[in-house]
Each structure stands twice: as structure tokens, then as C-alpha cells.
């Protein structure tokens, strides 16, 4: 049957039977009658044929080829091109509609208007209301042309040639927003001005598209000078300054029309990260970064022929002047407000409200926030009073210049909630801008030793003799003894170069013996020690895992150390000190993340460290200030003293079951640029070498505050089978129980400078390290006192000068 006949048969039969192979057709040609019959039976044959084909067709055969054919027909280049063109037309159409319906706003956004932030104590009472927004617009013509160019060189070199937008950067920003990846750089000066002045900081696709459209329109309708003036007058420069005039006054005490090119380059560099680049508060890293940014700006100006190279080469970095606090921020108010703002900015970034820290800082600085702090009004006043009574009232910089170099900082935290209930940032915010409670540029010294022990216990570490490390493990406390097992040679000296010989870990903590903890750090592994430190709340990101870190040579703040010890107090569950209780404005409500996290070290490890640290206050470097304090009244205390090299810092961080407080004293020169200096000789009340130790003023501040605000006497709930901490040797009310027997050794035993052959905790004298203060009364014998305690501590209580 020919093809024409077959087609006609197929038309008559409706459906074609399953095709036969060509060889069959050739071998047995059909008659017309047979063809007709076959055609009439085609529907049934076709069905059977298809079923047979499905059952019998091998994989990869004609069935698979048919499937591939259908896919190819579905995704032909014509169809794909058509789809792409259709989508493109749709996007262009939508953009045209958006362009036509989005006008340039007639007024500034709400965040660009004058507003105030309100700050409250935890009970809702007023703490502070910040003043007027620090903004004053100036005409661009008043600003030197070269200073104008510093901002263009810093942010957008193509500003004078572009159409006001960066399509690549905007597309990337939209895609990142859709995928929840946050912000990327790339916005032009025009776009930044539009966002700052007309729109909001919210991270939505709608806002980014509006920014694009308004920027295009603004660039067409307004001059470049108009846009640049708006940009430099609306940007946030830090120190509460909006606009170049406020910034010029805040950083250089001059009007904007008197700024030098070098000063303008610094202000332009600031816009990338105002807080991080503020010279007065910047870390060493921040200072390096802002100098690099400053050089980048000037180099770009030379490249664009806006600045002569010889003039640029002659420029030196213009160090800004010290900041001045806004009115109404005297005393501790400014420190609390600044710390609250910094915490809120971090939360805005963490919760995706702001793209980055710069935008977050601008949002907070714009005002309109109602912020409630966790600060307890009663505890805050008590902490301030304690610092004044125990320290600052004794300072007289006219008699002793060193007294003008003493700075104090403290943070008090509830270990069960993470709430920062009190903070002391310095003598007065209007006199000392840097917050001593949050600064991280001083060494925590021996307050780091509990972290080493915590790492050893949590990791189940062993000594070089393969003995598991615990409170009763014996170590060699010889001064300058080289550590064993380290690739880096290290032989630390004990305080006053005292040799202790074989001592337990408990005694080593009580006496703060450097050689013991240097060896323990190597036994555990310094990488593991730093990992534990980070888990407990310290910033260890850039620290090298070297044995010297066992002496606490890294930087830390009282806020950080309070968090570390609060985690120990909270049985190993991480505590992140949190200053803000709630914060909201008309557009956003910010609720802090839960300050209580997961268990970062085991409860047994944390509780064992707590047990060991009770020995420091009951038989160690803090005994005179804490154990013998008449206000203690049997309160359980665990803590550690610390005194850094050259006596540049002195610490006492300690806790009761209900309250953790870190107190730090820092030697900072009163003269710019305020380098670190020694504390030795301050107050003139410390006999001997005059060394300010952690067991002295810091511990006394801690005790006066903590025992003064304690509402009850509480005990630690510890789960540990280790620890040999000496129990309190005084009790004002009940006599000690069988498990709280006082030490049998007198507290004034003769110092030992030779290593003992063998010792047990009960045989060691309580003052193995020499004291540089004479006793002022009868020695404590270790027996419970029978008389009434004095109501006031002596002016110069026994202050162990070896306290580390």
C-alpha cells in the first residue's frame, strides 16, 4: 500500500494501528482488502500496540528519544527567546509605571526631622531625654572646593559623570534583599542622599526601587552641587553630628568653611563607619583602618587631579579633638546612653532592620526611640556611691599627678537573666568621654586564670604526667620555671619572684601563681583555652594561641569579664550581658535576643571553678577586702583578682549566687593622646611600693557595693566532687557547720620564698606571698570572731600587694 492509500486508510479508520517495521512491510505487502480491514481495526490495534510498546520498549530506545524530543520542542531557542523578551518588556513596563508614579518627595522623611530619644530605668522612671538633633545646614558655596572633592573621592569618583545611580549595585542590593543576604556596597552619592533624606533605612525591594527611581529623577532635575550639598548636610558623622557643619564642630571645633583638606578627608572617611573610625573611641585596629581610608581619599583626589601630589605628600593625619558631651549627659547618664545606643545599633543589624552598623547608627541618632534599660535605679546609685566612697574621694591630682591618671569602670549583671543592672563608666561623661565599663584596651591579667581552669575541667585535660587536672592536682609553683610541652619558650615570673614549690591548683588560684597556670594552659592546649574563652564571652577572634595568653595579656572590658563570670555563676549556661530591656519607635519595635544561651561548658566544670574561686576571697588575694569585711554577714562569694604588668590595670571580678560584678581600675594618662600608664602611688594610702592591686581598691569597691545591695544571704548550688576551697573564717551570726570549718592556719604566717617539700591544702600558710602593707591590728587566727564586728572597715585594711 502506498503512502497516499495509507493516509486515506488512516483518515477512514480514525487512528492508525501500531506501525510495523519496514522489513515486515516489505516482505508481506497487504492487499487493499487487508489494508481496509487493518485500518478499520486500527483503534484496537493501536491501543494494544502502545501498551506493548510501553511494556517492551527498552530504556534509551525510541521511547526515550520521543521523550527527549518533546523536551526539545518545549525548550526551543525561539520559545526561550520569546519568554525572555516578554519578561524584559514586562519589567520595563513595570519600571516605566513606577517611574511615572513615583515623584520626588516634597519633604524630608520622618527620620530626617528633629526628634529625641527617651531613656528609662527598668522601673519606667526617666533616666534621660537627649537634646535637639545636632544638625545645621550650610550652603555648598561656603565649603572649599577641595573639601567638597574629598567626599566625592571617598564615596563616588564618577559622581560628576554618572546618571545618579549604580545599576549593578542596585540590582545586587535588590537580589540580596530578596534572598535575605543583607546589604552590599555600591550606592552612588545621589542614592545615599535619597535614602538618607527622602526615604527610610528599611530593607525592602520597594524601598530600593523607589531609591533608584527618585535618584534618576533627582539627577535629571537637580544640579550635582544641589545633590552634593544635600548629601554632606544629611549624612551622619558620629558623635551625634548630622551634616558637615555639626561634624566640623564636633571633631575640630571649627566651622565647615574653615576645614582644611586633610580634615575634610577625615570627615569623608568617617561616613563609612562613624563609631569605628572615631579617633577618641577607636581601637588600634579602628585607627589603622581610618588612616588607611584617609589616605585612600587623598590618593583618589590626586588621581582625579583635584589635589596636587606635592601638597598631598606634605599632609599629615589630622587627629581630631576630644569630644564634648551633650548637655544633660553629665555623670553616668552619658555612659549609659552611649552604651544603650551601641547595643541597639547591633540589634538593628542583627534583626535585619538596618543593612550595616553605619545605617543603624544613623537610625538611632535620628531619634524617636523610647528605650527602657535593665538598669536598676537603686543598684546604679549604690555602685556610683561605692566608687566614690572607696576610691575617687581619695584622689587628689593636685597633690599627686598620678591620681589624675586613675580611671574606674564597673558592670553588674544578674546571672539568671543577663540583665545589666548597674554600670559605672567613669568619673563624669562630660570630663571623660571613653566608657571604662565597655573599653577593651586593658589586660584582664589574672582574672583570666579561671578560664584556663574551666577549659581544663571541661576538656578533661591531663598534666604532663597524665594526671587528670582538678582542684587538688599538684603543680610546681617555682617562679620562672620553663613550661614543658610548648613549642614556644615561656618561663613566667611569679609576683615578686616568689617560689612556691609543689602546690595544689586550689592554692595556685588563691595565690595567683603564674608558673602554675602557664603550665596548665599548655597542658590543656592554648587553642582549647581560647576556644573556651570565646564560648564564655570573651573576644578571642584575633588572638594567637601562645602560652603568654595565660597571664591575661589580651584586651578585655569589665562588661566582657562580667559575662564570663556570670556564665560560671549560671552553671555553664552562656550569659550575654544585656543593657536594653526594650526599644521602639514609630516604625520598629526591638526585643533583645534571649541573654541566656546554651550550655557552653559542663555544669560540673563551671561549679568546680566556682568552688575553687571561693578560696580566693576566703584564703587568698582578696581576703582582706572581702572575707574580713564586716558587711559580708556570711554571704557566699567566688571571685578573682588581677593586676597587669607595670600596674597599668587592677581588677576584681566576683559573684554571689545572685549578682556578678566586675570592677577595673585603669592607668590612663590625663594628657592626650592618653597612653596607658602605671597606677602605682595613686591615693598615697598604700604603704610599701604603693602598688594598686586587684585585692585592694577594686575588691573594696566590689564589697561595699555588693554587700550593700544584697537583700539576703544565699549559698551556691554546686554540683561538683572537686574543689578544696577554704571556707569563710568569720561569721557574724551562725557558727560554721561541720562542712564549713575555718582554716587552722593563721592568716599572718611568715611568707615562704623556698619551695616546700610536700604540702597539703590544710598545711599551707594563707599569705605565702609577701605583703607590702603592715597589719593594723591583731592578726586573724582563722577562728570565728566572737566580738561585734566594726561598722566601718579600717582606712587601710590589709591589702596583699601580691594580688594578681
TrEMBL record:
SUPFAM superfamilies named in the record: beta-lactamase/transpeptidase-like (SSF56601), Lysozyme-like (SSF53955)
Ranges of biased composition (kind: Low complexity): 41-51, 731-765, 773-790
InterPro entries, sorted: Beta-lactam/transpept-like (IPR012338), Glyco_trans_51 (IPR001264), Glycosyltr_51/Transpeptidase (IPR050396), Lysozyme-like_dom_sf (IPR023346), PBP_transglycosylase (IPR036950), PCN-bd_Tpept (IPR001460)
Keywords from the UniProt entry: Carboxypeptidase, Glycosyltransferase, Hydrolase, Membrane, Multifunctional enzyme, Protease, Transferase, Transmembrane, Transmembrane helix
A UniProt-annotated Pfam family: Transpeptidase
Residue ranges of every copy of the Penicillin-binding protein transpeptidase domain listed in the record: 409-658
Bias type Basic residues, positions: 9-19
Catalyses which reaction(s): [GlcNAc-(1->4)-Mur2Ac(oyl-L-Ala-gamma-D-Glu-L-Lys-D-Ala-D-Ala)](n)-di-trans,octa-cis-undecaprenyl diphosphate + beta-D-GlcNAc-(1->4)-Mur2Ac(oyl-L-Ala-gamma-D-Glu-L-Lys-D-Ala-D-Ala)-di-trans,octa-cis-undecaprenyl diphosphate = [GlcNAc-(1->4)-Mur2Ac(oyl-L-Ala-gamma-D-Glu-L-Lys-D-Ala-D-Ala)](n+1)-di-trans,octa-cis-undecaprenyl diphosphate + di-trans,octa-cis-undecaprenyl diphosphate + H(+); Preferential cleavage: (Ac)2-L-Lys-D-Ala-|-D-Ala. Also transpeptidation of peptidyl-alanyl moieties that are N-acyl substituents of D-alanine
Highest taxon listed in the record's lineage: Bacteria
Transmembrane segments: 80-100
Annotated ranges, domain Glycosyl transferase family: 130-301
Positions of region (Disordered): 1-68, 626-647, 726-804
Protein name as it appears in the record: Penicillin-binding protein
Source organism per UniProt: Streptomyces bobili
